[in-house]
Each structure stands twice: as structure tokens, then as C-alpha cells.
Write the C-alpha cells for this entry.
Amino acid sequence: MRISFIIFVFVVLIQAPSCTQPASAGEREQPQPKRLQLEGNYASYQPLFERYDRYKEPTIRQRRFKNADIVPLLQKLGAPFQVMEAGRSIENRPIYRVQAGQGPVKVLLWSQMHGDESTATMALFDIFRFLSADDEFNDLRQRLLSELTIVALPMLNPDGAERYSRRNALGIDLNRDALRLQCPESQLLKQTRDDLDADWGFNLHDQGRYYAAGKKPKTATMSFLAPAYNEAKEINDVRGNAMQLIGWMNGLVQAYLPGQIGRYDDEFEPRAFGDNIQKWGTSTILIECGGMPNDPEKQYIRKVHFVLLLAALDAIAQKEYENTDLAAYEQIPFNESNSFHDLILREVEIDFKGESYLVDVAFQRREVAVDKNRDYYYRAEISEFGDLSVFFAYDDFDGRGYRAVPGKTYTRTLGNADEIKSLDALELLRQGYTSIRLRDLPDRTKMDYFPFKLLAPDKSDDTRISIGNNTSLLLKKGDRVEAVVVNGFLFDLKKDAEVIRRLINKM
Ligand SMILES: [Zn+2]
């Protein structure tokens, strides 16, 4: 009863569809569900969630940061850490090794071997601050540092982070370089594992936002894998321990991300680090952070990751995972790739060559990097089209009774964005205008979540409803425009009238 109430509250707070997601940096929202509670054997970790703000590294506030941002943080880490530059990337950026504890069980954590996957790096810096503190969690710290030797390689791929790209400067995916070891970053990871002879390995990544956890309308906000170490996918003690720990972790993290946990297929990938490190005798756990409604900068996921990693380290220290059945691992639903879209308009009518058709139209919003990869704007495109009944959406629009028609470009060309304020925006949208030409375009990060598409004077708009186009749509009942889709964002002209006004005035 209690749990279902908590889940209900969570779902209301987190999953409520919203078309008011700000898109530009600096005002990205994050949910703060406060009533979530760990129970039973996990209850002792709840205070970590509640006191999280005390440990959150304040200089890292969003996903896109670089090696130069974390080096000063690493250099000023004091006790209980030993910090050393462990190697250099191809472009000569330093990669640091952070060590704490003198325990017999050796744990290696590495993050961001893919440069655009930074959630765990954020969580590691929060954990560094936690381990440096002196407060009511001293018992936990003491236990971790006396039972474990913890070694972390935060941001293994600093050149990729510089570009916010998966691959390193050479263009190699480090996670396919575990055997050939051509890159200094891969060599460093292998060397660190071998020198430490790690008992446990945490392989920390991010996955795309469009995975579902099973065949349900829940995003895979976190996914796990205990990688196979051979083609036969056998389970020895090394891999079995990893499976048990994942089963234990899943029990914890479900409280914060109910139904939002997936599991990767365990097909053996002979070139990948996770698979090989498992083979080399280190119980290896892959954690992938995915998408979640209203958390575009993954700050809520970061907080959950902080709690999860500390609790997992403690479960290793106390051998708590040994009580978990392998079935707890196997019951985690598989990740379903490309199940989600940002917006789906369900069962709208469209016209084509004089005939009428019933279709679903899906949009996904891609990030386009600006400001040397420190920021981005969204560019939406129609990502699927037709019968999309097997797909899910962050925003789902019941389009029955609506006709979807491409929007029009306003007949006058304006000087700059300020002049839009003098127009009656709602009236323009009612008349079917969704694009405005401007001689002087504002910063793109300011116009990606906006009720009009802003175009340069010589640019024409996408006016065909087809895959790959960023077509603006009018959703009409009879002759009346009730809602519009602009850059993959839905604006209801009644319900969102205030939002529309605010966005125009802010421009
Ligand atoms: Zn990755």
C-alpha cells in the first residue's frame, strides 16, 4: 500500500506529460520528488538521498563540461584521497587516478570512456566530496575505506569530452579497443585494472534517451549488464557476483526510478572492455544512464547514481549482495532500443493529393552543439510516421478528431526578435502562421523552444510531413487551430497561452 502510494506520487511528479520543457541552458528544470523512500534492507541509505545537496559538486551543473573543468577539482582533493596523473590522452590531456581506502577488496570505477556520457563523472565528483566530509555518515565512510580500496578514473576520454563525442581524438571507440589496445586511454584502463588486480569493476556510461525498460511506456533511465566473458555466456563466480550485485542494486534503485530500469542483452562482444575485464577476473557491472522526463541535464539521475554507487560499494564491503538470488538479475526487463520519441501525435488526419489518411506522427529532438560543445540547441525532425502504436513518447497527444496541416510562414519579414513582441502571437498562430522570417536572428539556444520557427529571410520552411523534416504543424478541429507543433514541441493555444506569452516576452 505504502509503496504503491509512493510510486503513484512519483509517477504524478515525474511522468506527467509536459509541453513546457525549457530547452535552453540555464533554465532546464529538474524534478525534486521528496517523498520517495527506501524501505526494508535499503532504508539505511535513504539519508544519502536526503542529504545529497551537501555533497553535490557545485561547479558541475550540467552534462557538458570538459577536462579543464575537472582538473582543478582533482588537484585540490585532500584526504582520504591519493590523486595522481595516471596518463595522457592522444591530445595530451591529463587522465587522473583517484584512490581511497586500504581494504582488501579492490574496486575500480571508470567513467566517460565515451566523451559524451558524463552522468557518472558528475556522480563520482559528488562521491569524492562525500568521502572527504566528516559528519554523521562517518560509520559508512569508515567501513568503505577499511574494507575496500577504491580506485576511480573519472573521464577516461577527455578528448571526446572536449568535442562532446563518443569517440576519442583518433576517432576510435575505446570500448572496442580492449584487445588491440591502440589508444593510450585504453592502455591506461587495462594497466590500471591489471596493477590493481581489481575484484570489482564499474563501467560507467550513458545510453540514448529513446530506450524503454521492457515493452512498457517507461524510459530506461538506468540500465545494467553483467557482461558475458565468452560466447556461451557462462556464469562463473566472477560474473555471478556481478549479477547478484546488480540484482541487489535494482532493488534499491526501483524506489527512485520505478519501472525505469532495463537490462542489456548479454551477447558477448569480444572487443569491449566490460566483457574482457569480466574475463580477466574482475566482477564487472555496466551502468548506463538514459533519459527521463523533465531531467534533460540528468541532475536527478546524477543524484540517484550517487546514492546507488555508495550503496553498492557498501553492499560489497558488507557482502550484502551475496544474499541476492540470480533471479533478481534475470527479472529486470530488457532494454528496448528506439522505443521512445519526444512527441507522438496519435491518429491525426492528414491530406495528401486530395485524399485523407489516418496516421501517427512522431518527433525526436536532436542536440546541435554550440559554444565549443558547451551548450546546444534542439533541432527536431519527424522521426517516424504511420501506425506507431508500438512506440511510446515523452509527450503523447491524442489526436483523434484533429487534422494535422503544415503551418505557414508569416508574410512580413521582421527586423529582429524584439519586433515579435508587437504582434499578437496567439492570433498569428490561430491564423496558421508558425514561422517568421527575421533579418537578425537571435542566438539559436533561445529559439529552439519557442512557438514560432524563426527563419533567415532567404530560408524556406519544411512544408511536407515526411521523415527527417522539421515540419511545423497546425492541429485543427474543423477550421479552428487548437494547437501547434513547432520544433517538435507541442503548444496548446488555450492551455499554453500563458507559456506562449512568457516565451515571446522573454525573447
Ligand atoms: Zn558508452
